[in-house]
């Protein structure tokens, strides 16, 4: 049995012979694509969870403010080797995901974090809380404190936060 001849749908005399699938999201973020399932785009209200490499770039932008690709790459190079084109590609992907914004008004495009550090941290903690601890905040806190010793200043801040949270709960009742 022979397969049907390709159809010239564009009218340019050239018929497509292959179908290409963009699988870069699965390459950049292996959790983005589940084998056998269609990728799901994040909802507008919830920004996508950044990959570890994207989180490193966001950390640079949070600490140093709006930066060019060259500046981001220079900061990353202090802790690990990363090429200019790799950083550029990641920033382009992050812009597409809505994690960063790009100002193209200058010769060197300037990128800035689109989401505050605290909001991203809350999103990551909430995701971990649900996936690893079944929604139990006490289990998350106990494991965090058992894993790494908190400084006296951090413990004082944790106590203040617990007191404020307790006061809010008292106000609701």
**CATH T-level topology of the domain at 52-113:** Arc Repressor Mutant, subunit A
Please tally the helical runs, counting DSSP H or I stretches of 4 or more residues: 7
The percent range for strand residues is 5-15%
User: What order do the strands of the largest sheet run in, or round the barrel if closed?
Assistant: 1-3-2
Number of strands: 3
Average pLDDT taken over every residue? 81
* CATH class category label of the domain at 52-113: Mainly Alpha
Rough outline: elongated
Reported CATH architecture of the domain at 52-113: Orthogonal Bundle
Pattern of helices and strands: HHEHHEEHHH
The CATH homologous superfamily of the domain at 52-113 is called Winged helix-like DNA-binding domain superfamily/Winged helix DNA-binding domain
The Cα radius of gyration reads: 23 Å
**Oligomeric form:** single chain
* N-to-C CA distance: 75 Å
């Amino acid at each position: 049995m022979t397969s049907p001849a390709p159809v010239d749908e564009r009218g340019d005399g050239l018929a497509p012979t292959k179908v290409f699938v963009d699988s870069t999201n699965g390459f950049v973020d292996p959790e983005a694509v589940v084998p056998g399932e269609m990728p799901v785009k994040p909802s507008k209200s919830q920004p996508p969870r950044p990959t570890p490499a994207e989180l490193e770039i966001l950390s640079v932008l949070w600490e140093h403010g709006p930066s060019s690709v060259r500046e981001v790459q220079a900061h990353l190079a202090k802790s690990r080797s990363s090429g200019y084109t790799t950083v550029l590609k990641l920033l382009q992907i992050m812009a597409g995901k809505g994690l960063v914004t790009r100002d193209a008004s200058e010769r060197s495009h300037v990128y800035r974090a689109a989401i505050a550090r605290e909001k991203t941290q809350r999103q990551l903690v909430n995701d971990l809380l649900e996936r690893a601890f079944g929604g139990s905040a006490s289990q998350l806190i106990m494991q965090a404190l058992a894993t790494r010793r908190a400084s006296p200043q951090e413990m004082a801040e944790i106590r203040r936060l617990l007191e404020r949270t307790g006061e809010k709960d008292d106000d609701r009742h």
